[in-house]
Amino acid sequence: MTALSDSPRIYPIRLYGDPVLRRKARPLQHTDMLTVPGFDPQTVRQVADTMLETMFEARGVGLAAPQVGLPVRMFVAVEYEDDEEENEGQDTPLKSRVLREFVMLNPVLSVLDKKKDRSYQEGCLSIPGIYEEGVSRARAIQVRYTDLDGAQRTIQADDYLARVFQHEADHLDGIFFLDRLPPEVTEDYRRELLAMQRKAKQYLSDLTVREGQRRQERGS
């Protein structure tokens, strides 16, 4: 977790066990002002920019708003020159290999290819250190979404990029990739997940204290 500030370079990423990660996110408008807990209000564009920086810092390929404590239907993602799943968490230069960055508001996914793929390995920035194969995802999808200017967009994606979009869209409905695997997989990681839950609880407790201190300072 990083220290909080009014003008963040990156956001703390919420861990498994944080209640915000299980809530269904609400729709938003591109003109909304958003408040990441612990920070001052920002525009949607500012939040998206910081989410992208947070994603790069964590060496991820996508990040959903609930993962930074915002229960809104927005996620960011990136396509690299080499978009294999091994990119995530590895010590390779990321920004130099970016093909496209995506910021999607209120995404709606539809399946273009009903054939399922289970061959890729998935991980999650909110469940660090845990990677599993076997998550069933559609091979090809279409996403309708709103961009940062309020325009309606449509994009088609297949293979790994389609998986990234499906993974991030799941976060907007409170779903982890582990939920799409047999229960025994989650049980195998019980010790690690319990440790994350403790860290999540402690972070929320510390955040409550810091927010109280900020209110007192501004009221004095």
TrEMBL record:
GO biological process: translation
Pfam families named in the record: Pep_deformylase (PF01327)
Cofactor note: Binds 1 Fe(2+) ion.
InterPro entries given in the database record: Peptide_deformylase (IPR023635), Peptide_deformylase_sf (IPR036821)
Annotated Fe cation binding sites: 124, 167, 171
Cofactor annotation: Fe(2+)
Active-site positions on this chain: 168
Cited SUPFAM superfamilies: Peptide deformylase (SSF56420)
Family: Belongs to the polypeptide deformylase family.
Role summary: Removes the formyl group from the N-terminal Met of newly synthesized proteins. Requires at least a dipeptide for an efficient rate of reaction. N-terminal L-methionine is a prerequisite for activity but the enzyme has broad specificity at other positions.
NCBIfam families (UniProt xref): pept_deformyl, PRK00150.1-3
Protein name in UniProt: Peptide deformylase
Organism encoding this protein: Deinococcus deserti (strain DSM 17065 / CIP 109153 / LMG 22923 / VCD115)
Gene this protein is translated from: def
